[in-house]
């Protein structure tokens, strides 16, 4: 199998988990490399529905190994909860799940700070998931974070926690006027997590280097989406990590020469949760219809997702910053009942047509989407298993997306189940 990176090419929630789940059959290792429990991966297998926030969904496949790389910010309580949850369904993570000792740990004060900051920001709030992601990444970059390896060393852990929590308490008490957090109970709680996680903690760089040497297949599972990337997204309405394909290398310790395919997952339309620009958003009417048919509610926070038409300008930019080799188009079936479908092909800013995604928020806020209308196919696609049986208009729609983005469609998803997936020359 080629080593593959799967990333979201819009604002997250594109259906990456399903694509990853499908491609896991061909892989030996599934690796998470950025983000944390802000992600929500929903996979349906048979009649069972699994929602993971941290665990790579590859764990549900017998014999596959899963890695949580150094680029992740790991909430131990959440991870242990998910390990316990899959165990009740007969899936044992022991010997198959590996946690990088260099991954950052999310502390209770990170979550508290995330929530206090958002509340204080009022109308300027980013709309974060409140999972402490931003504050955990600040501490990483400020070099005061606690790493997974530290959880295993009692004295070291205490010292790291004292330093980090003292700094957090300054902000919690002086800026937000909230009561300080005591180090003692956090230390006891996190020390206990360390013991429970000990069997999984490893040198993941060495594990992946060995896997590459043995010609094992690596599948990197991105979280969030390209436009939530801290550099390439709609800053400041973004998450705190790099979500683009390049982050798979930095966030796991595997070099770029090891990667052969980069798959950009896109919904056949667009959604976004949280605040920030969204040029093709449809408010009310058809937007609500897309939300209803597509069940567009956040897997992590349950919030309503904002919905709109496919934006080729967005995905074209995603193709550039990720070096996409293929698109995986999901939820095409959600469009089955529409009479006609719009695709945004370009933008208009101050009366001028532009074909590229502007990086300035001010310009982005003035964008008017330019649409092209395609006829709908008005038939049920959910039972189709071969691309040649697609309705002509559905095929034309897909061909047009690929043409506008200049990346071939390699996979198509027509429903939440594993078998509702069509491989198209990938
Ligand atoms: P944070 O990652 O919790 O800091 O949130 C920052 C922004 O990213 C907010 O707009 C969130 O709604 C968004 N976000 C974070 N994780 C996801 C995800 O997995 N899917 C979609 N949006 C997300």
Textual characterization of the structure:
- This protein starts with a strand and ends with a strand.
- The chain is built from twelve helices and 20 strands.
- The chain has 426 residues and is α/β, with parallel strands linked by helices.
- The chain binds inosinic acid.
- Inosinic acid (IMP) binds next to α4.
- Determine the strand fraction and express it as a percent band: 15-25%
Number of helical elements: 12
Shape: globular
Corresponding CATH architecture of the largest domain: 3-Layer(aba) Sandwich
How many distinct beta strands?
A: 20
Query: How far apart are the first and last residues' alpha carbons, in Å?
Result: 11 Å
Reconstruct the topology from this structure:
Elements: E1 4-8, H1 16-24, E2 29-32, E3 41-45, E4 48-52, E5 65-68, E6 73-74, H2 76-88, E7 97-100, E8 104-105, H3 108-121, H4 133-141, H5 154-175, H6 183-197, E9 201-202, H7 204-213, E10 218-221, H8 247-250, E11 261-267, E12 270-272, H9 285-294, E13 306-308, E14 310-311, H10 312-322, E15 326-330, E16 340-349, E17 352-354, H11 361-365, E18 368-375, H12 392-405, E19 409-413, E20 421-423
Parallel strand pairs: 1-10, 1-11, 2-5, 2-10, 5-7, 6-8, 7-9, 11-15, 14-16, 15-19
Antiparallel strand pairs: 3-4, 12-13, 16-17, 16-18, 19-20
The structure holds inosinic acid.
Inosinic acid is lined by residues 12-13, 38-40, 126-129, 131, 133-134, 223-224, 228, 237, 239-240, 273-274.
